[in-house]
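We now fix the convention by which a protein and its fold are recorded. The integers have meaning only within a learned vocabulary of local backbone shapes. A complete example follows; check for yourself that the lines match position by position.
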Amino acid sequence: MNLEELPGADLILPGIDDLHNGETNTVASLLVAIAATRLTEVGLDIPKDRLAPEPELTLYARLLHERSDAYSYYNALLSRLNSFCNALEFSYKYGASNNPNTPGQN
């Protein structure tokens, strides 16, 4: 499965890269931190030692300083994150057993 095809991948995949590069306070890396447990359970490599504490609060506070529509944008970001996680979990559980490129498959 190509992770880039999943809904929300344009935010989540750069967030994983940000964390690997030590950037822990980007919108994308904070989204990954919010869902780190879900993402690691399906085999994605998330550097847990680089996750921001209280990523939900950190993300919302950041958006408050950057946008006038922080609340609705925050909810939209969480919806995209959830869509990515749901699609990835669905693929992992139901459709990926024969695909060697699927996260978590060895």
